[in-house]
Amino acid sequence: MTQKAERLNNPVMSVIRGNIGIIVVLLLLFVALSFTSSVFLTQDNLITVLRQISINVFLALGMTLVIILAGIDLSVGAIVALSGTLTVGLIVTTGMPVYLAIVIGLVIGAAIGFVNGCIVTQFKLPAFIVTLATMNIAQGIAYLYSGGQSVRIRDAAYTSIGTGQLFGFLPLPVLYMFILVFIFSTLLMKTKFGTYIYAIGGNREAARLSGVPIKKVEITVYTITGLLAAFAGIVLSARMYSGQPSVGAGYEMDAIAACVLGGVSMAGGRGRISGTIFGAMVIGVISNGLNLLGVSSFWQLVVKGLIILIAILVDAQKGKKLSFSFKAAKQ
What we know:
Layout: H1 3-9, H2 11-18, H3 20-36, H4 43-68, H5 76-94, H6 98-123, H7 127-146, E1 151-152, H8 156-163, E2 165-166, E3 170-171, H9 172-190, H10 192-202, H11 204-209, H12 214-240, E4 242-243, H13 251-261, H14 273-292, H15 297-330
Antiparallel strand pairs: 1-4, 2-3
């Protein structure tokens, strides 16, 4: 094999080529913020950025799978609130062992995802409407369970899940993020299940005729997304020393933004985990930079909204170009 062929087959080079646009954007952000804030490039701040984006990455990994299927899941933010509040509440108010409360919290998230998948596939309803409904249900249950109040926890065995460090400097949420990114990158790119996801999102009818178990795949993907959201809620509540029913609002938008920014097509059938990670990093760096510059959180919402809008417009233009190229090829 020639050196050129080896470079082409190098997975790192493949990731760079596939995400060159957003990588350039990320580098420009780093350069700009390094000049506007002397704190930005410090080790402590960069680790803070990684810690902050870890929760969004947990959600965005599942959202990537859902969007590649040509679906959407708006319930993930509410699952974050419900799982975190419920897990902390079970430990504090009932004295339940930490491991058992965590298992119940994860099962609740997976169950909501499973219900989403079953309703979407069995009744052929729009995922947007189904997950909007379950979002409100999950949010309501979180408020009912906690009485609208945050539940404090001091159990070190639990709080260390979100506050602990590896080797004295690497936050555990960042470690979880690295592990999950590796797992889901492998799942999507190296397994038959990942091939099925792309096939369904790319052409559902062709996938059905090819014998792809569409319903099973979709239900599994929504269940995984709910499980990841529950895990994010547990890690976040451990990091905040409390379960809060109000937390998680807008998290689904950040996850969607990370996916779209990273090149995951809202039309389905196209996207990479690596792109989603870069998308999450862009959002995290922008939020961190705006915080360092003292920009109001209200303006940050405006900026995020504009980012999502621009990303969707770019995605739409890519779709038109791909459609045009396909028609030209047929002619």
